[in-house]
Amino acid sequence: MAQSLLFISDITGYSKFVYSTEEQQHSRLIISELLEGLIDSNMLAMELVEIEGDALYYFKQDYIPSENDLLIQSEQMYNWFHNYLQSLEQKRICLCAACKNAKNLELKFVAHSGELDYIQVKDIRKPYGLETIQIHRILKNTIPFSEYLLVSKDLWEVIDKKASDSSSDWLDGSDQLDFNNFKYRFIGLENWRSKIK
Residue 102 and residue 99: Cα distance in Å, rounded? Predict the structure, then answer.
């Protein structure tokens, strides 16, 4: 079986955003527009497994992106997300907590790979097994940034790194995951944020 890509884009600050606002209609609209825009920014044509509240969980069977393609995909989603929030802030006339605090939302990405098994429930096919558990568990990591791209060691070892000049920007990390030490590489996204106009 060939290696497949697993990818999650996760909105940071979602729980606080929802809990701290009484204007549920506005917060619901903002989150739904953010998720829709992230889905529309899927240039790798990954298959959306599910929407998990504040996160989008994708996979692409028998496919491993290059480092460059993974960076471009993540940056495209990141730029759309923050451009939307900046536009919302600049055009805002509503003074509710949801509209005022949307600018504090952030975005992170986790990418992993493995040989996938699947579970079929009615018409829905979902990745199943250890890799699916790992990509969700590693969202709770010790990376010191609120916005980052994390690439598991399993994925890092198989992606093509020839076309990219960013290899020196990656940092090494690891966290205890169940009974294993889960290793990964990551980059903070502050440079991407500084380029958004």
Answer: 6
